[in-house]
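Still learning. Any example?
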Amino acid sequence: MDPNLRGQWSSKIGFILAGAGAAIGLGNIWRFSYVAGENGGAAFVLVYLFFVIFLGIPLMIGELALGRFTQKNPVGAFTTIKNKPIWKFAGFWGILTCLGILSFYSVIAGWTFGYIFKMLSGDAYGYQTFVSDPYVEVGLFAVFLLFTAGIVYGGVEKGIEKWSKILMPLLLLILIALIVYANFLEGSSKGLEFYLKPDLSKITPKVILSAVGQAMFSLSLGMGLMITYGSYLSKKENIFVSGTSIALLDTLIAIMAGFVIFPALFAMGENPEAGPSLVFVVLPKLFVNMPAGQLVGAFFFILLSIAALTSTISMLEVPVAYFVDEKKVNRKKIVIYATIFTFIMGIPSALSQGTVDFFTNFGLLPKSLSSPDFLSHMNFIFGDFAIVLGALLLSIFVGWVWGTKPAIDEINQGSMKFHKIAPIWAFFMKYIIPIMIILIFLSLFNIF
């Protein structure tokens, strides 16, 4: 097979698992759990589900349709329809966003991999020592990037699709086992009440905006990622069903993660509002005090590592697809070059947790936007700002530049029933979604 040719998904289930894998990551387990804990538990979950349905799914379908219509990467997709500098920028913005997120996300993913061995050794403490060791940090970061590159190196069908079919069911099995275990702990029922019984008085503007932001982050929208995955779809595939399935499977994993974390937290009398340190500081202490806790903790971090890996392979695929499509570069060569570039880009993040003072106290952004370390800066710039801007540009492009009519015609191929709800989808793409995204944008800078 010519390595310069575009790949294609070999089956519908393969695409759905790969797409869900792209969306499912640390955002579903690590980020969802601590954001839900900080924002009232069940009240947050209720609002989050609302925005997944009314913002996430329509935007997901729009991205997939644009990708399949053009059969291109983000740059090619935008410029094929409207070859203007602003839309070329929008495509490159998606590629840069994926590389930026991949560079710091793989550092955190390396921690999850390292914690498997910490748990097996019974070491639940020393988080700060662990993340400030340069050899451990850079080593784990490099190992995780190599795992990612190895899968993308294999191509669409034999790499991404093949491994998604293995990793996604494995992730579900481990998660189900952990749910059963956590909910048989004494005192776990209080955690279920916190998670499932909403107190509507806790729904504040902050909770609403946190839920919108989490829905966007969790579904990996606005990065050109779903454009790229959509470009590997055949015309007979049902975009509406596939896009909805990806969004619902992604959401299911996040909800299931809550059924592990909150019952376990309350069973051990811990505070659900522990914030970002919840997974790496609070939960390991919990696990070692449980029956068979070392093994349970190891399985939990295996789960996190799998979730992270299914996301990192999709982020690397976006720049790879651009160079294969537009520059006709050999896939295997560009995987190597992109991996080396990402590794160099990510070293400051790996050294910013106490190892190198310059990166630890980088302090370029104001404290209201980010913690002073380099990794937190990258998280804000690429994980918050870049995703939101990308989603805004995408919604305007699909709703107003490409137009909802040709978009609907594309979605209707393989989905003849979509026309029944097409006017509602079009209204959301043109009006509701851009307004919601602008509000998120304003909230990022504490304007709204």
In short: The radius of gyration is 21 Å. The chain has one domain: 12-444. The mean pLDDT is 89. The longest helix spans residues 374-412.
